[in-house]
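[Solved] Which block belongs to which protein?

Original post:
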Amino acid sequence: MVPWGGITCCLSSAALYLLGRSSGRDADVLKSVSRVDQLKDLAQLLDTTCKVVPLVVTVSGRVGSETPINCEYSGLRGVIVEETAEQHFLKHNDAGSWIQDSAMMLSMCKEVPWYLDDGTGRLFVVGARNATGLVLTVGSEVFEESGRSLVRGTLDYLQGLKMLGVKRVERVLPTGTALTVVGEVIKDDVGTIRIQQPYKGPFYVSHKTIDQLIANLGKWARWYKYASLGLTVFGFYLIAKHAFQYFMERKRHSELRKRVLDAAAKRPGRDNEDGNAENASDSTRKDCLMPDLCVICLEQEYNSVFVPCGHMCCCTLCSLHLTNCPLCRRRIDQVVKTFRH
């Protein structure tokens, strides 16, 4: 039998090891990016940097936009707004009871051109929704109960539904939010400086500082490493345990086979003695007869019948430790104790 438990642990440890290496590599990359303290220095940095190699930097500032979005429910002004609407209802199942369920009705996102501003300059951010670490603030969460129209309620009930209402959630990136962005800085034809996702490299838009991002990635890399090591040790333990049990089982079967062969080799001599005993007088027959011994322990008389093969070659005590008949190797479904005169 294959030790699937140990193999699964080893494969899981390998996956965690790869995740740990990836997190550690990302942390090293973030340590190597150029840190720009003031946005006004970006123009000079772009002019002095080689045009062939992409310039990946980390900058910080507050979110701003010339055309912000006015949120309908929360009243906030933001640059990225996500709206979702879920219909909640009770559904009649086959068991005759009502269970609560939901279905997505609406999911849309709005984004306007926006920038980071640190007081010394502006840097437009492009493609922030594809960045790692972007978390939108929940601006509002409203539950609108369904109307209690008699006709609508009757139709829904006939379909096995009871409408409860609609849950609307509004998530927004408000203006004035402090962000840290890691990405490639470019200058377009009109001289506007933008930061975007590089062809190869990190792209982060986060509320955390660059030092917090590096520390967080390092923490996860260490956690993945320790978890991978623990699963590896446990997996090898399971595999070694399975191998030891397999070896002991094979050894026990080998010893059992040897005992059966030795017992079979002694049977002809005993049969001759039994034949001579039949010719003896009734008074000495009991003294000449030898009991039929268990082929396992060779000490007790065999008194157990194996079902379904029907062989009787072991005592009751030895039969408790067998799963297959020692004579025909068929699986033992039941052991029946017999009484001999």
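(Second protein starts here: sequence line, then its structure tokens.)
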Amino acid sequence: MGKTAFPSSIIKEKTDYSYQFSICTLVTDHKEYDEMKNSCIEAGFLEDDCEYLIIDNSTGNSIDAYRGLNLFLQQAKGKYIIICHQDIGMNDDKRPVLEEKIVEIDNKDPRWGVLGNAGRANMKYMAIHMTNGKTLQKFKEEDAPIRVMSVDENFIIVKNSANLALSSDLKGFHMYGADLCLIAEILGYHSYVIGFELTHKSEGNLNNEFVKAKKDFIDKFSQAIYPRFMASTAARFYIGSNPWKRTLYNSNLILFFIRQYDKFFKGKKSRTN
């Protein structure tokens, strides 16, 4: 008989992580990042069981959001990966509240993959649960956790065990929340807005880069998946492989009627249900 061949190792499903949370940020302003990190520590995200990871873009945007977030998702050692803007502050809810919300969503839907504090349930309704740092207006989503098509990029939680990634053929700093949620859905995971409140200081910038990112997103997924109406937190659109339908259904008139349909017949029910 031949010599017994032993494997190098036996792979098992991972249940133990080096950290409970990995808090990941693209940094362009170290002073603002320091304020954000200190607010997280004061909220209970201590460095004994949380790691803080950054990509340093303070001297120029050398790594865009798609590449950067993929690096975070590949290298983070936390059970839960928090991807957040440098201009948030955990001045409202604290860590025990977030852990409570994660337990709640685990019980409600073990197949969740992405959580956020704002997102589109359908073409009409946007769920928001956060404080506007400029106006100090507090948004409360009374039906949270609520399933959504996409989440806003200011604060995203990814379940590490879901092994998610962003598109390798998109780039820039817009639409990656929608990209992540759509890929999660394709892989069999769901996205939710949860009732965890923090402060977001800015309201986003829908500039020419956003317009290009939206077009690139539509073009990419029009070839990748079946036709559908889709919405990010900042835009509503139709994606499909037929160029004539894509032009027609992305017109303001058609999108208006779709919004009205969702308003009267779907309410807060997600189009992904």
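Accepted answer:
You had them paired correctly. Confirming on the second one: The domain at 19-200 is CATH 3.90.550.10 (Spore Coat Polysaccharide Biosynthesis Protein SpsA; Chain A).
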